[in-house]
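Repro:
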Amino acid sequence: SHRITQHFLESRPYPLLLSIVMPMFNEAPLTAILREELTRFLPEIKCPVEVVLVNDGSFDQSLFQLIEWARSDSRIHIVHLSRNFGHQAAATAGLEYATGEAVILMDADLQDPLPVLHQMIAKYCEGYDVVYGQRASRLGETVFKKISAWAFYRFFMKFIHRDIPVDTGDFRLLSRQCLAAMRRMGEVHRFLRGMVTWLGYPQTAVLYDRQARVAGETKYPLRKMIAFAWTAATSFSDLPLKGSLYLGMLGILLAMEESVRALINYALGYTISGWTSLIILNSLIGGAILFCLGIMGDYIGKIYVASKDRPIYLVAKSYHFPQRR
């Protein structure tokens, strides 16, 4: 069960400026659709809006389409990264660039419906510093994708960080206070949804139905999802290291059992009969040692990268054309 700190909520006025942050990587097929949908939706927001589009080193024509969009709309801000740094780094760049009192992070594929932003702002006005979108359903996704996502969130909540809400991605609203606190966290290997939960500010959920992608291809196939899950686990918990300890203890127990059996066989004169079990046991112990060394190596590698103190991302150039609307 969750143990959530209770906060006294104080209502606040509608934000003076709302920032919408969208990381983008090779999204040329949907840029025109996104432009049309945002242009239609933004007048519904009751305050000025800035849209921060982070081009995460796209290989296609995304940057040129975004610049052309920004030239015709002063609300559009383009942050062009020097290369592809990954979704979490691109999202970090957008969050640090945004200047709004309330900042909404969402994907550009429109799977997170724009009208949900009204519900998030309403919760922000109630006093919440974090409002995350929680998926009631996932449309347009395969059964395997739905099952794997369901299992990932519940495993993570059970074994890695129990306070991370299930069925939530990076789609969320952050207050300026919460964002300022998160900027003090210097993780190189970033897991934003875990970092936001760790901050502990007043948080609440908004339920919504996740839509199918309108165009383009998913940027998180199975291989990347597994890699992301592993990064999340190793950057946010020492459970894999504890698991290697338990695996080592299991190996010791097996070795003790085989030692007793070997002594009994020796006493009875049946020394040759244990050859098969000896090979199996050696293989198990050898595999366990290599597995544990691999886990330790991954943690040491992360420490090595963090010790270099390299920036999480590099901005090649930002584009904003305030003189036109």
